[in-house]
Amino acid sequence: MGTLWHGIRDAALMAWEVWWALVLGFAISAIVQAWVPRERVQRALGDGGPGATGRATALGAASSSCSYAAVAIARSLFARGASATSALAFQFASTNLVWELGLVLWVLIGWQFTAAEYLGGVVMIGLMALGMRAFVSRRAEAAAREHAAGAQDGHQHRSFESQLPWRRRLTSVRAWSDVAHNFRGDAQMLWREIAIGFLLAGFAAQLPNGFYRALFLHGAPAPIPAICSAIVGPLIAVLSFVCSVGNVPLAAVLWSGGIGFSGVLAFLFADLIVLPIIAIYRKYYGAGFAARITLLMLVTMIAAALIVTGVFDLLGAIPSGPRPGRARIFGSIELDDKLVLNVVATAICGALITLTARRGVTDPVCGMRVDRDGAVRRTIGGRTRLFCSESCAERAAHSSPGSASSASSSSGSPNATAW
Question: What does the domain layout of the chain look like in residue ranges?
């Protein structure tokens, strides 16, 4: 019972430590999603050249950090003509180059890990692009595209994008409503991952540091610990079933316990090869292609972690000295600047959620909150229904046998309802 209490307590303290960073990261990500147009980028991902890969990277960095959403969107892009290289670049960018991940890393274990995470994301994309043909032939890619075109999507989180000029967006309730709904949508998709990550970190912290030192061959001659950490890190990620920002708390505990710098990076990079996501790859692309891209990503992640570690070692940027203790990682609740930041973050979070409550309705199919003015509207059974995306509207239409469905304009109607 004492271990149970300490695990839950440490998980709550870690959540308190990074609450303001989570809110700020999600808010910045929501603004980028709402105010940065992406349609032109999506239309330009057909080839696998450097230009298309760069555009896919930019699109991914401006998207949600949810790994499951990234995989679903990448499948959609791939099925519509984007190359496998562009699709994987989108996935890597959306899970490694987003604001909230870097902010939480900075708060928990230092700016070096944030810089290494961003650099590593770029290195992974470059290595993946170079190694694509060694793992996936053009024939295999064509077969996988045909399979992806016939596979059914899971729910794809739809970003709400404002079309107003920049100056008007700052004072427009509708523009901020788009931001608020992106904020709520990302939080709604990721809260379970983040909560599980905090709990895993809380209970992993109860293990003695000697366990981690033995696991990662701490004290062995260089470069054995770095290589071992880079290999074991992804295996822990695969078995932990946690991805995206939810990986960061456990990464902090692993760093405190003795895992090497390369191991922390490889662990963070590996959120795209956890077992549930590998199963999704198999569903979307078929077993053969799924196995090939999973192996490609694993090799890329390990290599990128070692390369970035080598660069940071040459620059003298790897944190040295004593590892942060449990008190530093989990923090405490006191009257200090962190309390002020968390109060401000809570106020921002409350304001954005309140805006979605006033201007939005709940999609009856997936439960997402959607702005009334930006919702997809369908007439089903003689009534106007509001949905977050075309896919949810289609599912609702198909689940109502005998009822006629037709697309209607995006302008509101007095009797429009969510269901």
Answer: 2-354, 363-407
